[in-house]
Design goal:
single chain; alpha/beta; Rossmann fold; 2 domains; three-stranded parallel sheet; 42% helix; binds ligand LMY7XDAE
Length: 286
């Protein structure tokens, strides 16, 4: 039997339709959700992502301002821009595209964004609230993964979830979100010994390693749910994930493709977070 495809493109469309309906309701009250996206430098992939964010915002009836700077921008200049956006009542979400050039301290920059506008969910206050299960903007990729699991009726409760990767934006938070849904979570990383013996116990495997097609059928348990967060190029320059999609077909129960899996969900969840921020602002003025 071949694995069931987890179709992130289709699920993200569904999420975006729901967001659009809520945006239209807000517009009747004179509020247009506004997202400010800051891009520093000329990273080609980042430019594609920020353009996609802008295009998606506009398609859903939201405002999106792209602030683009050369990689010579100083940290202070960036902090000044963030402060200006923090004060702008028409902007409900602020996002600084990562990675940033080396001269800029990522933590300082993320911490400068008002937590109320932190639609990426990267601010230490957002992370802290998420950790203790309080209301917070959830980071978009992990949030998108949880949405995909829910859509396919995959309940993490009692399952062994193995996360490969410990980044602040994917690995650490997805483990926490799975834990909150009562999964038993194991984190693996570059220093983990005998990785395959651990991943082979996973009912849900999250691959966020950054190595093209690294996970093949020898790493996985029969019928496991495989979520591929990788975004790599193969030997022919073709986009691929951390999972060898073809090779796991006969073993996995469910698998996300790359492209068309987790990636589109990231942008859809960002739209949801921006809308949520605008809705919160409205309820405060009532
Ligand atoms: N401030 C942030 N920076 C970064 C984030 C983030 O969530 N916030 N995540 C990634 C990049 N990213 C969004 O910013 C992102 C990556 C990939 C996709 C996506 O849709 N991928 C497509 C393929 C796209 C292609 O053809 O190149 C897919 O998987 O189908 C969306 C968003 C790092 N930085």
């Amino acid at each position: 039997m071949t694995a069931t495809l987890i179709d992130g493109k289709a699920v993200s469309q569904k999420v975006k339709i729901q967001v659009k309906e809520r945006v239209e309701k807000l517009a009747q009250q004179g509020i247009i959700p506004g997202l400010a996206v800051i891009l520093v430098g000329e990273n080609a992939a980042s430019l594609t992502y920020v353009k996609n964010k802008k295009k998606t915002c506009e398609a859903l009836g939201m405002r999106s301002d792209l602030h683009q700077y050369p990689d010579t921008l100083t940290e202070q200049e960036l902090l000044t821009k963030i402060e200006e956006l923090n004060q702008n009542p028409e902007i409900h979400g602020i996002l600084v595209q990562l990675p940033l050039p080396k001269q800029i301290d990522e933590f300082k920059v993320i911490s400068a964004i008002s937590p109320e506008k932190d639609v990426d969910g990267f601010h230490p206050i957002s992370v802290g609230n998420m950790m203790i299960g309080k209301e917070a903007f959830l980071p978009c990729t992990p949030h998108g993964i949880m949405e995909l699991l829910a859509h396919y009726n995959i309940d993490p409760a009692g399952k062994h979830a193995v996360v490969i990767g410990r980044s602040n934006i994917v690995g650490k938070p997805i483990g926490q979100l799975l834990l909150q849904k009562d999964a038993t979570v194991t984190y693996c990383h570059s220093k983990t010994k005998d990785l395959a013996s651990i991943t082979a116990q996973a009912d849900i495997l999250i691959a966020a390693i950054g190595r093209a097609k690294f996970i093949d059928h020898t790493f996985i348990k029969p019928d496991a749910v495989i979520i591929d967060v990788g975004m790599n190029r193969d030997e022919n320059g073709k986009l691929c994930g951390d999972v060898d999609f073809q090779d796991v077909q006969e073993t996995a129960g469910f698998v996300t493709p790359v492209p068309g899996g987790v990636g589109p969900m990231t942008i859809a969840m960002l739209m949801g977070n921006t809308l949520q921020s605008a809705e919160k602002g409205l309820s405060k003025t009532k």
